[in-house]
């Protein structure tokens, strides 16, 4: 017993280590890292906008001629715009939609990618509406239906989204399955998976695309290897290609394990499916060349075997449920997952974050233009002020020079006047003195003459 427990613990630790390594090397990290980076960039932009608002508020209070009222109001509203973008970025995710005819194994493929039997599967038409699996930070999974915001147990999926149930939703309805992020790497890395009803159960394909596909990054067409791509599937993809520019489409030829019973015709059947798929993807939709499509867009898998290998029954035999050649099909499924993860991550980074990047550039450009205009106007005002000061200084110097010249001239005139007055007074005094002396002599002579007489 103890040896068994030790073996189970060792196997669990090895599985956890492998999952951790796979997660670290996952192409999906490109999206999560880009999301983290652009979030930090917009936080920096928010700080820059906040600082700029305070600066421009001081500028506006100091001089209302430096920035117009309309531009000032626009800049003040940038904070709200940045915060809204940050809110949208936090909700951005990668989205893949699985579609195909009924009973082709779409739900089983999704379960295999999630490594757990989450969606209801079975014979015949199983999925009755759109089932969207997305992540939650809650410890327990739950279900949200269109008619109620009240969480429901995951066990209710058997009656909510199952076509065999009496409680049926419209085929265009969307049921959300909130699955704990810690339980699944795909969901933890912001991937949303959408399972759809068979495209042969509804004629309203345009409404499906409008409601559930316009924000999808990848489309996965699941085809039964025992059949071939149908007109309905081609029509749906043509409609998608018309609405979206160069959509990313994968074709999975499911139930390839059935070829174990007809080994002599495997290669011919494979080539037939490959030729038809390449003709559709490359010649009709013109999405890629044949080499790229054959190597990166079409895969021959068994979703049942993939799910069985990842969600094993501990009581079952190691090879129970697997057909001959299953290892090659499991490797093909893993190859599809890798190509899918690389494709959806790169596409989502471009489609989800390119618009945010452009908005960020517009915000920075608007702030740069506004601050540059304020700077230019302030420089012009400074130059005008300096010019006025220079003119006033020159005028002041001129007036000072004129005043000094006038003062010197006045002084010179006063000196000349003083000298002239001095001379005139002196001359007048001399003349008066002379007259007085003469007068005095005459008086003395008269007095003397009177005495003699």
UniProtKB/TrEMBL annotation:
Protein name as annotated: Dynamin-type G domain-containing protein
One GO biological process term: mitochondrial fusion
Superkingdom of the organism of origin: Eukaryota
GO cellular component: mitochondrial outer membrane
Annotated Dynamin-type G domain residues: 90-337
Taxonomic lineage of the native organism: Eukaryota, Metazoa, Spiralia, Gnathifera, Rotifera
A molecular function (GO) term: GTPase activity
Protein's organism: Rotaria magnacalcarata
Keyword entries, A-Z: Coiled coil, GTP-binding, Hydrolase, Membrane, Nucleotide-binding
Keyword Transmembrane helix attributed: no
Protein's cellular compartments: Membrane
Alphabetical list of Gene3D superfamilies matching this protein: P-loop containing nucleotide triphosphate hydrolases
